Amino acid sequence: MIELRFTAQKPNGQLITGAISEPTFRKGKNKIQNLAKKNQLKIQKIEKKVAYLYKIKRGREKAIRGEQRAYSKAEVENALRKLGYEVLSVNRKLLEFNFNPPQQDIVSFVKISAELLDQKLPYSEILTLLINDIQNKTLKETLKQINNELKKGADSETTFLRYQSVFGKFTAYMLGLASKSGNMAEIYKATAKFLERQQEFKKNLRSALITPMVTLFVLFLAVLFYVGYIFPETAKLFLKFDIPLPPMTAATLKISDFLMNNGFLVALVLIAPPIALWRFGKTKKGRVIIDRYMLKLPIMGSLIHKTLIEVFCRVFYTLYSGSAESIEPIRIAAEASGNAYFEQQIKNVAIPLMIKKGVGITESFEASGVFTETAISRFHSGEETGTIKNTAFQLANYYESETVFRLKNVIELIQVGIAMVIMVVMIGLTLVSAETATISPKSPTMG
């Protein structure tokens, strides 16, 4: 988060100051300008809190170097002098990179917090302990700011949501909600479980889809280089001496000539579709369409679908407290799924049916078209017996067990498939090379 401080003048000439936090400088500046326009203020100055490197000493003690964030150099100097130090130098840090912390660091923070909450340790003490131990600079600074704001009596939900660019929207919401609930430890445990499953699924998905795709792409480039550059140098040497080429060698040479003569077209066909798909996926409509077809992928589509239902059920179980307050847990659980199509169907179909027509949870979920028959059947039983919360928990555990087991098998199957493709390609290249090696020049005739 970027912290900005502004100085503005009221219509009566009085000067006022204020501070806001936003993910980017542009958003912060726009917010200040809108605030000034709404309250008829004239902006005098907007300052950004940045890092300063200082060098200080006290008496004959050894000089100390450190870093402090502030709105101006003068602020740092004044603060250090008030502490009794002689200021040797204060300079703004030239390069300041604030990368988001790794997901593993956030998972560790949430998991350890849950364990310490179980031991009835006060939350402020937990934050203090973790701030001292956390190595990631961004996460450490974020937790310091959260701790300071909470000590001042700030609303926990608003405070955590302000740092959703660091934690993620769902995690920030859950951690903020936990501080206001009566079951803080339970919500932290559920959030940690959710983050671990999300991390595990992404890792498995990378193993199942992304890694094989990269392997095949690199293999394709290697074959393209061989066919387009290395092979023709040898084959055309035979043509130069009017030596007839065997079938496979001749066919490969034709492919090579086509690639070399239409290099721009080939590059366009290879590069344009992925870029277009990536750009399309960045739009709201594109993301919904891509996420919808993700669920229809052969083999993997079913696993992705069931994992989404597992995540939904796990979050729904954590937040659901009764049928009278089911809308908000359903909305949050839909957002936590991470699939735009799944989220859209629940928000635009299921929730409106529940609010406007008073339809039950089971019928609304069935109308959305994103739940399996098994899930619908279990929700129906849970709704009839009044145990829908436990039903969601059972479904989450069931789908977790099923997807983990099946995904391992799928990954092994894909790895075998990739190995087979590589073997076939290598055999093809070997055969072409071997055929080329059998070519012999015509015997010279005696005149």
Structure notes:
Helix content is 69%, strand content 10%. The protein has 18 helices and six strands. A hairpin with a 5-residue loop joins strand 1 and strand 2. It is extended and about 100 Å long. The mean pLDDT is 83.
**Helical amount:** 55-70%
Number of helices: 18
Counting DSSP E segments of at least 2 residues, the number of strands comes to 6
Q: How much of the sequence is in beta strands?
A: 5-15%
Mean pLDDT: 83
CA(first)-CA(last) distance: 89 Å
The main sheet comes to:
3 strands, antiparallel
Major sheet strand order: 2-1-3
Topology:
Blueprint: E1 2-9, E2 15-22, H1 25-38, E3 42-48, E4 50-57, E5 64-70, H2 73-82, E6 86-92, H3 103-118, H4 123-133, H5 137-151, H6 156-161, H7 164-167, H8 169-180, H9 184-240, H10 247-261, H11 263-282, H12 284-294, H13 300-319, H14 327-336, H15 340-356, H16 361-368, H17 373-385, H18 388-437
Helix pairs in contact: 3-4, 3-9, 4-5, 8-9, 9-10, 9-13, 9-18, 11-12, 12-15, 13-14, 13-18, 14-15, 15-16, 16-17, 17-18
What distinguishing features does this structure have?
3-stranded antiparallel β-sheet, mainly alpha, 447 residues, extended
Summarize the structure.
By secondary structure, the chain is mostly helical. 69% of the residues lie in helices and 10% in strands.
